[in-house]
TrEMBL record:
Keyword Transmembrane found: no
Pfam families linked to this entry: adh_short_C2
One function term, GO molecular function aspect: 3-oxoacyl-[acyl-carrier-protein] reductase (NADPH) activity
UniProtKB keywords: Oxidoreductase
EC number: 1.1.1.100
Entry protein name: 3-oxoacyl-[acyl-carrier protein] reductase
Natural source organism: Actinomadura namibiensis
Similarity comment text for this entry: Belongs to the short-chain dehydrogenases/reductases (SDR) family.
EC supergroup of this enzyme: oxidoreductase
Entry keyword annotation includes ATP-binding: no
InterPro entries the UniProt entry points to: NAD(P)-bd_dom_sf, SDR, SDR_fam
Length: 248
């Protein structure tokens, strides 16, 4: 299927590895010019080289609104504009209610909520002016089904989901779609950190019986950015092998 993306320009946050990199790789394969960001210059440069000619690495820390805004601004300068924004950030430290201090919440909110707000503030107005744009946020299945040991992520990402849904309603008439993907367990370094890399044990907890492939996730991001997905907006879609157990 031709997704109609060739020649578009994308800013993909936190994309030196994991699901962000998978999204950037699929978009690049569809002919999209991509700018990616990360904090580690060497790791980021290697990722950009693997993505191919035209990929632009931006050393940026999206854990602050200032860093998130700076990433989008540099991507716009490097690419001549941004048609597609993929928001993404690492997860805050694990912990439950009793073990999590009050002052930990603000940094989590900056990382997983305010970074998304800042990137959208920097990118979406120009999309509205052009009459075409795509925002895809990578959040977490914890938005729908909170994990008790990830209270910071549960809280901050739920706030981001509310923001994204509200934004989607406001900009739909301008040809801009806004959706979020809620990944379950995928074979990434984040999951290795949380679960120790025992993929067989993790797979046993997933109805599909397998751990998610980041490449498949990246393909879903690309579809939401496509011309064919122009009627999909305001959605928060689980990509989790059936892990989410609710009806709605």
């Amino acid at each position: 299927m031709n997704l109609g993306l060739s020649g578009r320009r994308a800013a993909v946050a936190a994309a030196s590895s994991g699901l962000g990199y998978a999204a950037a790789r699929t978009l690049a394969a569809e002919g999209v010019r991509v700018a990616i960001c990360g904090r580690d210059r060497d790791r980021l440069t290697l990722a950009a080289r693997k993505l191919g000619e035209g990929a632009h690495p931006v050393v940026a820390d999206v854990s602050t609104p200032e860093g998130a805004t700076a990433f989008v601004r540099e991507a716009q300068d490097a690419l001549g504009g941004v048609d597609i924004l993929v928001t993404n950030a690492g997860g805050p430290p694990p912990g439950g209610f009793a073990a999590t201090p009050l002052d930990a919440y603000q940094s989590a909110i900056d990382l997983n909520l305010m970074s998304t707000v800042a990137m959208c503030k920097a990118a979406v107005p120009a999309m509205q002016e052009r009459g075409w744009g795509r925002v895809v946020a990578i959040t977490s299945i914890t938005v729908r089904q909170p994990i008790p040991t990830l209270i910071l992520s549960n809280t901050a990402r739920a706030g981001a989901t509310g923001f994204l849904k509200t934004l989607a309603l406001e900009v739909a008439k301008d040809g801009v779609t806004v959706n979020s993907l809620l990944p379950g367990f995928h074979a990434t370094e984040r999951l290795r950190t949380l679960r120790g890399g025992d993929w067989e044990q993790v797979a046993s907890e997933i109805p599909a019986g397998i751990v998610g492939d980041p490449g498949d996730f990246g393909a879903f991001v690309a579809f939401l950015c496509s011309e064919q997905a122009r009627f999909v907006t305001g959605s928060a879609i689980p990509v989790d092998g059936g892990e989410y157990a609710g009806l709605l």
